[in-house]
Amino acid sequence: MDAFPIPAESFILGFIGAGKMAESIAKGVAKSGVLPPDRICTAVHSNLKRRDAFESIGVKVLSDNNAVVEYSDVVVFSVKPQVVKDVAMQIRPLLSRKKLLVSVAAGVKLKDLQVCSVGVVGCRFIRVMPNTPSAVGEAATVMSLGGTATEEDGELIGKLFGSVGKIWRADEKLFDAITGLSGSGPAYIFLAIEALADGGVAAGLPRELALGLASQTVLGAASMVTKSGKHPGQLKDDVASPGGTTIAGIHELEKSGFRGILMNAVVAAAKRSRELS
Amino acid sequence: MDAFPIPAESFILGFIGAGKMAESIAKGVAKSGVLPPDRICTAVHSNLKRRDAFESIGVKVLSDNNAVVEYSDVVVFSVKPQVVKDVAMQIRPLLSRKKLLVSVAAGVKLKDLQEWTGHSRFIRVMPNTPSAVGEAATVMSLGGTATEEDGELIGKLFGSVGKIWRADEKLFDAITGLSGPAYIFLAIEALADGGVAAGLPRELALGLASQTVLGAASMVTKSGKHPGQLKDDVASPGGTTIAGIHELEKSGFRGILMNAVVAAAKRSRELS
């Protein structure tokens, strides 16, 4: 039973930590119309560029983190993981059951965040793991509800992060595997795009054309998977005509274990995530 | 000097061949506002589903290909490669210098198109499958007496279903080898399998895999940064990303993708 639902039509969203992630989310939220920018706030100490970045979106820039916490209903910790604990302890006196806390700090667990709630009954937390493409509005984000966060809290955060991409819910114990896939995954694709472009150059294309085609082809292929709802194996079957160019290319990939190599990358990154936690 | 420019504000676009490619382009063009659907036409023989598909976009469905050619200023050949020659010979008497012809038929060269139609104002266009979702990687090559303005017009039309570049026709085999989406379908399945191996349920793994690939490609197309620089930006010291990258590099991941592009380009040359 939610005694203090976040008021959907009037809630204020505050960011502690005015970095790139906060900027991406604030931009996405404002641009998609999910929240008008004047219901978003943050604090910037001295860096004028960061102040400008937020003010140019229409976000209120307050004097310090305490002001952000007092003013906001939903408070996002978007500081570097190393300083989360200090920030959490500092704002603890200002917390109440009425506020929803969200952390996007990589590797910081819900139980670590719970240090906030010592002495504050019913603290509501959601841990959110977005990935780098939040910056271009195509994030793959996963959230995990902690403490006494409610279903409605989850839906609200789902809406906010849905404005910078797609979002799923999962148990926190899956977060290492998720790191290996959506956290580190963009890098594997940067390598793939470079390699496809190199292949194009090897086949005779000028570099600029090869790189443009490579990145657009990858974008188009992923769009087909996300929009068609078809299995990627089915999509592959649909385009690989008998004795054609596509199946010749696929044959090269299969004979060299392309798919197994990508699996290895995800598994290794997930394992490293566990080691680091 | 262009004696007969296509009238930009009033030209009619016609499709010979009312298949999926024509539908994707017609939808994209209408949806993006580049052309109102009532300035687009095609012909459907008997297949009611195809008729409905076009009429539901607002496209005029005429009685036959001859009507399409007579009515249109820009005529797109979107029939299967095997029937292009017959269609070309059939409409030949109806052509004039005022019309711009466009072919999207895979593997059919400009010199053949020009010979069969007796018409030299041609643009050959090679879109790829993601035209269907508005994210095509398309390349065009201007032939014969097609003008720069013709090229810009076609660039606008195909720009409504994705991105378009110009290139010499001699590069088309290499482009075929590169712009196939199938390698990425395999990659997405493999990333999802990796996620499942690491403990994720299938549906979550597949959703994350496809969205991650989409996001990464968006970063390359939108940031204008080199993919190697983007990789450097995200691979922090001793972190999870560089551990994953190490697996890829030690197994020659990039070389394997190069092999695929080169092999497909070679096969394209063999088939031409």
TrEMBL record, chain A:
Entry protein name: Pyrroline-5-carboxylate reductase
Q: Which organism is it from?
A: Citrus sinensis (Sweet orange)
TrEMBL record, chain B:
Q: From what superkingdom does this record's organism come?
A: Eukaryota
For this protein, the Enzyme Commission number is 1.5.1.2
Signal peptide range equals: none
Any single GO molecular-function term of the entry would be:
pyrroline-5-carboxylate reductase activity
Domain Pyrroline-5-carboxylate reductase catalytic N-terminal per the UniProt entry, residue ranges? 13-107
Please tell me where NADP(+) binds in this chain. 16-21
PROSITE patterns according to UniProt: P5CR
Q: Pyrroline-5-carboxylate reductase dimerisation domain location, by residue?
A: 169-271
Residues reported to bind NADPH: 65
GO biological-process terms attached to the record? L-proline biosynthetic process
Q: Which family does it belong to?
A: Belongs to the pyrroline-5-carboxylate reductase family.
Q: What is this protein called?
A: Pyrroline-5-carboxylate reductase
Which organism is this protein's natural source?
Answer: Citrus sinensis (Sweet orange)
> Which lineage is the organism of this entry classified under, starting from the top rank?
Eukaryota, Viridiplantae, Streptophyta, Embryophyta, Tracheophyta
